[in-house]
Amino acid sequence: MIRFSCLTVVLLFSMALSGAVSAETLYVKKSGTKLQAEGSAKSKVVKVLGKGTAVDVKEKSGKFYKVSAGGAEGYVFKFKLTSKKPSKAGGGILDILGGDPKLAAKESSSASNIRGLSPMSEDHAKKKGISEKDIEAVKQMETFKVSELEIEQFLAQRKLGEFSE
Amino acid sequence: MGCAAPAVTETYRKYSLGKGGKDATQSLKPIGLEEEKAIGGSLAIQVFNRYGGLYDNPELQRYITLVGQSLADVSDRPDLDYHFAVVNSEHPNAFATPGGYVFVSIGLLRVLENEAQLAGVLGHEIAHITHKHALKTLERNKKVAGFGALTVSMLGQSPDVFDKVIEQAGEIIFTYGLDKNLEYEADKMGAEYTDRLGYDSAGLKSFLDILNQSQPGQDSVFLSTHPSPADRLSHLSAGSSASSKPVFAAEFKQATQGKL
């Protein structure tokens, strides 16, 4: 019995040292999240994960977690994952699409599907006599985009986020 | 997330309209995304209308968007479409409206010294959106709680109800401000987002220091709708430790030089 306890302690200690975790499931927060070959944002992309995809955490070490998702293994930047299980309404289709990089990348999240200034907002502003210029300013703001690539370059240049060392 | 959850829950429970509101006996059902965007879009139009319109400089807008979107990507609600703009107001102001609209004034950019401070301000505003502070306050507002549930189809058929909702939401954002506990929560979460990204998380604190020393005029909506900088500093200091993370002063100067 004493020998068993010692063995357990040694096992737990070595698990803690290596960062290994026992059967923790986390979920992808946003579609387009990259599963990388190594714990580095510069490594090869193994798969693109859809919002709500469940990942099994194998190891927690630094800013990247080693995970398995849909039969593939790799690393995900830890702040792209959440312990909160997605609601059925939000994640269903994207869970299915998560396995296909092209579809997952193309498919926006449920939140992103509602785009553009609501006609209700525009009508309300006109009724209140707010100038067309201010309405157009919101439309300009909504169409002003930076690409994923620009954000990656911005982060890489500063060594921020998944590019931090 | 390690927030002061009990205090904030209590805040929602007690909050009905503006500061010092009485208990609301009933509340709206949680506001859905489409309705959130309609409310936020209306308030965004009002931000431009009240605070000098769009400061039209695409390079500056691109820079603010790069910092802001990077923060939103590591936030607790990255799947929303976020939009960032600069408003042409001399007063140091920043706003967030539901649905992902974030604004900073040209006056605010002029007093900032580095990118970590900008990230601190944007992180605070993004936290208001991720935690749905204005929406949850609106749901407890006694002047709209009686409607039971707000849906786009109902609001479309009853423009008067939408007018009432926007009027109350406008008062929350532009007149009374959010409850101070929600502001402290946004400070804390905003600092957390900047830390996740790798900025010096004392950026917001250092901006509040500047604001505290400069004492902007009493007509500043930033002061009238937020707890005092000194008050916020004391709350932020309570849980913060020294950071050796970068502030990117040279990068901020390069990105804003000749554009302010």
Quick overview of this protein structure:
Chain A has about 160 residues and is of the alpha+beta class. Helices cover about 40% and strands about 25% of the residues of chain A.
Explained architecture:
The complex is a heterodimer of chains A (165) and B (260). Chain A has two domains: 21-113, Roll (SH3 type barrels), CATH 2.30.30.40; 116-165, no CATH class. In chain A, 39% of the residues lie in helices and 24% in strands. In chain A, the strands form two sheets. A five-stranded antiparallel beta sheet of chain A has the order 6-5-4-1-7. Residues 89-109 of chain A have low confidence and may be disordered. Chain A has helices at 2-18, 88-97, 101-106, 119-127, 132-143, 148-158; strands at residues 20-28, 33-36, 45-49, 54-61, 64-69, 72-77, 81-82. With 165 residues, chain A is α+β, with helices and mostly antiparallel strands. In chain A, 35% of the residues are buried. Chain B has one domain. Chain B has 13 helices and three strands. Chain B has helices spanning 5-14, 33-50, 58-73, 106-111, 115-130, 133-139, 152-157, 159-176, 180-197, 203-214, 221-224, 229-239, 249-256; strands at residues 83-87, 94-97, 101-105. A three-stranded mixed beta sheet of chain B has the order 1-3-2, with helices on both faces. The termini of chain B are far apart. At the A-B interface, α4, α5 and α6 of A face α2, α3, β1, α7 and α8 of B.
